[in-house]
Each structure stands twice: as C-alpha cells, then as structure tokens.
Amino acid sequence: MNPVEIYLKLPTPFMMNNWDRLLPDWQIPPQTLVLVLLNADFPLDDEGNFVEREKNRLLKQFLALGESFHRASRQRGFFTEIILPKDGMP
After folding, report:
1. Domain range summary for the chain, segments of one domain joined by +
2. Residue 34 in contact with residue 15, Cβ under 8 Å?
C-alpha cells in the first residue's frame, strides 16, 4: 500500500463560488487543488489514545509534507495555502 497519494484537481464549483470567503487573503481565485491522502496503519473509526496517537502521527506527516510543498511552491512563484484536515482552516 502506498503511504501517500497526491492528486491534482481543478477547484470544485463550491470552491470557485466561495474562494473569497475560504481564502480571504487571496487576490485571485485558486487554479489547482492538491489533495494529499495519507494511509493510516489501521482504521481510525474507533476512539482512544491509540487512535489519537495515529491521527497525530498522520497530522505531523501531513504538516511536514505541506510545509515542504509550500516552501518549494513559493520559491517557484506560486501562492499556496495549506488547509488543515483536522479543522478545515488554512
């Protein structure tokens, strides 16, 4: 199983209709969405410390990937925003 899956997509109609509220600091609408999927070591539909530790591990992995992508994109002149999967906030 691949630990990371990355998909490039056009912004959804919802994103295009609401981008100014979702990304208030942006001056132009988004052109591309990059979706990052991380595979957990086990199902996360249960509760408890074990599951929370796995969620935290995945969040740290996502943030590390996001920070690297953000930095590389900025160096190439692209404006990016990382949306946290935990709360949906930039």
Report:
1. 4-75
2. no
Listed as own residue / partner, the contacts of 40-43 with beta carbons closer than 8 Å and 24 or more positions apart are: none
Output the pTM of the full model.
0.84
* 5-50 residue pLDDT tens: 999 999 999 999 999 998 999 999 999 999 999 999 999 999 999 9
**Banded pLDDT at 1 (limits 50, 70, 90):** low
Sequence-distant (≥ 6) Cβ neighbours of residue 16 within 8 angstroms:
29
Name the burial class of residue 70, with classes exposed (0-12), middle (13-18) and buried (19+) by CB atoms within 10 angstroms of its CB: middle
One-letter amino acid for residue 54 of the chain: E
CB 40 within 8 A of CB 54: yes
